[in-house]
Amino acid sequence: MDDFGGIVRTSPLRVARPSCARDVADAVQQAEADGLAVAARGCGHSTAGESQAPGGVVIDMRGMRAVHEVGRGHVTVDAGATWREVLDATLPHGLTPPVLTDHLDLTVGGTLSAGGVGGASHVHGTQAANVLELEVVTRQGEIAVCSASRRRGLFDAVRAGMGRYGVITRATLRLVAAPERVLVCTVPCRDAGELVGLQRRVRADHVSGQAKPAEAGWRFEAKAVVYDGTRPPEGVEPSEVERLAYRDFADRMRPDVAELVRLGEWARPHPWAMVLLPAARAAELIGEVLAGTTAGDLGLSGVVLVKALRIGRVPMLRSPADPVLFGMLRTASPGCRTAAEMTAANRRLHERAAAAGGTPYPAS
Q: Could you give the domains of the chain?
């Protein structure tokens, strides 16, 4: 068994495929009695073996993906549901989760366990900060319901807790009004400093940024997205403006993923590293890292991601104040650095980030 990262490959002793929280509790209790490690697995999109349990028990959560209720400001779903399935249920009501992951085919339980970052996190915080209530199976096999006002300690422990304190089995998520259309503005930036500065000051509903290999080093690009807007945000001079239906924008990665699957890149090892940097040090460190990085160090379909964001109240997600997410999303493509070499580069990135006051994302 492996995961999206393709770096760690192990075999569990057994795989449980529950259909309800009671099944999860039984699997956890049996594993506890047998002295075995437990890992919950959604779509297996982890990159360092987090969804694996060598010699232990993997709980495959995809059998629990029902949407139970869509209310005026909330939706209750099983933890094995993907954000695509959540959006399919809420959009007919004109509602959406305030923060969506860039790739919709990730499970609710998986991203809440990591924190969950999206382009709207600079406004709304992480996905974990937008949870109203959780049903959790604790490490002792108890089925518990928790929220900000009910068993707060458990609620705080499992959000961004990477499964250490329990398995999320159901979540009630906050919803907001969904826009009908969005205005996507592409803004070239001179360097990392301008990119980070633009993301921190721009008044937009969704912001993101990338660095892309160029003939003379790297070029930087921001995306500033306005919901139901007719003009770019004030102070922004885009090189390109595109109008999209909200659903098409939310699912913008789907054609790219299909192409990567066709090319075989989606199946290659993905030694990814993401860190949260203090904004005051982010541009400097990003510039230094990229100055020593070539296209071959990144891979043919690798991505350099930069997002200024807010965390919200998620105690388990350690972060500097005013964080900037910096991601080196590498792919071990043919003719590029090996997965082992990329993994070593990621370790160096984590060390440099820690020295600058940063933290890993997800939490190690």
A: 14-61 (3.30.43.10), 62-177 (3.30.465.10), 181-361 (3.40.462.10)
